[in-house]
Amino acid sequence: MQPDTGFESHTLSEAEAYLNSIPRFSSQKHSAEDLRAMLDLLEARLPDDKVIHVAGTNGKGSVCAFLDSILRTAGKTTAVFTSPHLVKITERFAFNGVPVSDEIFLSAYRTVRRAEPDFALRGWTVPTYFETIFLIFAVLVRQFPTDWIILETGLGGRLDATNCVEYPRLTVITSISFDHMQYLGNTIPEIAGEKAGIMKPGVPLVHDDTDPEASEVFRRRAEELSCRRIPVGTEDLSDLRLTETGLSYLCRPLSLTRAPEMEAAPPLMKFELPFRAHYQGVNSLLAVRAAELLGYSYEVIREGLAGAAWPGRMEEIAPGVFADGAHNEGGIRAFCEAASGIRDFRKAEEVTLIFEVSSDKQYAEMLSCIAERLKPDHLILCSMKSYRALSTETLLAAAERVFPAGCGTELTVIPSLEEAFRGALDTKKPGGLLFIAGSLYLVGELQAMLRGEA
To answer: In the chain, at which end, N or C, are there fewer CB atoms within 10 A of the end residue's CB?
Structure first.
């Protein structure tokens, strides 16, 4: 039988179709040892001492974006691996702040596909979706070496493909909340334990300290592995406030944090972010602490944070119109806090939310959070084109239980995202706000529509 070589002429859409045909959450995950062997066959082992490894439930991509901007501000070259993408798969592979071109991606894709017969000879199955794109990224790093490599895990940590890196320079764990429980566990300690799987002996850890149960897991694991542990919580931020252009706060330098024995008040550092969301305070400070550990100066960090960009995270895509990829209960809780803050800051006359969610999410809990914390004047339920979309019938039934008649929130179903968005824009009051949230797939579809690529 002749080997399949049809992939040699694949276009980007054909390559994506092949990748999408591989089960994303396959039970046939390969071990870290297998993945390291695959990387050796590809001659694409990542240099461990250049790797910053980031895990968590929410905020991973934001932390990667902050770190990337800081490192590039310092004059360093960077390679960043993130997921998921919003519009194009090439967004997952950014070098020096720019996604790779279609041609460069396809070249690395073909390199990995050519290795499949060698993988089979060694008894390995076809790599999963995520393993394949990780191998593609490693091939790209081999072709374009950089000073720093920022790796974002997929849905977990311990069993994640990126965890084949044995001794990264630094690990970062963002906030922990309920998501992907069928894979990671049903309690916060269980989920935190999976995320803590990226921790390595002697490798420093910077972690979100806002959930005591999760933090206790990280504390115990750090003791077992003799890791220096840098916790980051809301108490480390002072004077956190929205501004006309984003968010600002003050904090102590790392060397002077949480030191009750100090007699005098330490100097404070001020940071400004181009994001109008309070949750980015802790996310950005995780990146600040990581950069401090790596030896970068306050001036470089401050400039890097101010210049960071991360689409689809409370992004103001038009005046008074915000798109946010919050896609689980914890993310929606943070979104509602941020949206409420923007409403109060701008003294908005009314708030409209366009909402849709993937079928595997806790949509009833997410709707309850919206009802309790945001209380929008108008809630528009739509339908994504994604195969993972929750049906509008199911979503409406859940919404009607949470938003009964007379509660102050008007419920509307407009299946088409484009019709929902255009209609909401047309009826938006000059002093009103429009938010789009519930899924990164929803935000990606919106961005593709606005670019004319839908």
So the answer is: N
